[in-house]
Design brief:
By secondary structure, this protein is an alpha/beta fold. The protein has an 8-stranded parallel beta barrel with strand order 1-2-3-4-5-6-7-8, surrounded by 7 helices. β1, α1 and β2 form a beta-alpha-beta unit. α7 runs parallel beside α9. The longest helix is centred in the C-terminal third of the chain and has 18 residues. The relative contact order is 0.16. The structure holds phosphoenolpyruvate. Phosphoenolpyruvate binds next to β8. The site of phosphoenolpyruvate has 14 residues, from β8.
Length: 254
Amino acid sequence: MNPSRRPLIAGNWKMYKGGRTGVELAQDIVKSSHSLGSGVDLVIAPPFTVLAAVASTVEDSSVQLAAQNFYPKNEGAFTGEISPSMLKDCGCAWVIIGHSERRQYFGESNSFVAEKVTSALANDLVPIVCVGETLAQRQANETLRVVEGQLNAFIDIIARSPHAVAIAYEPVWAIGTGKVAGPGEAEEVHVAIRKQLAAKDEALATRTRLLYGGSVKPENAAALLACANVDGALVGGACLDAASFSAIARAANR
Ligand code: PEP
């Protein structure tokens, strides 16, 4: 295993557990992280409303904090938005960018994703940038072309950055549906992403962690994480249960 690509398991809580139940979930995740050892990085992305409280909960643990979103300006008259520096102040080290739900429901384009990657890196937040095709695109054999285009939008930015970012391949048809990509399907796309990174810069390909996301569960995690180019997972539904999230992390701790 490449040491700069230690397995990373990130939990995207989406719009769940935004209050007291979020702190309880974080407490349970911290407890189970104690038996995990240092072979895997654990990141959790709670909703904004509970970020500060969860930051205190994870403070003396190995669990790291991510935000699910932000607006790529440092301050200003942007009612309802949260800046990257506010996330840093709150204790976040990571941020998810380009999740398909943001692309689909909030119209986030490839160029806006690129702007957010620049802004996150400038503020010392490590992006987990999501890419992935829809079912219609897969059925039309456009998977590799779509993912290549999404990566192309921000590849120059991450190639220039000294920070190692993570890219999550999340086939849209597998998110929250229970339909998981098979290890072969996931690895095929991960290999294509790795090759595209290598064509830009070998060191970029070596340091970038490629996560798979889409209905990852304790039952399928080991097979996915055994793929040579799968360096971790971005987990939605299963991360809302500390026992399931820990079981996935244990599968990664190889
Ligand atoms: C996600 O939200 O990024 C995700 C992969 O969700 P799920 O695991 O529920 O498919």
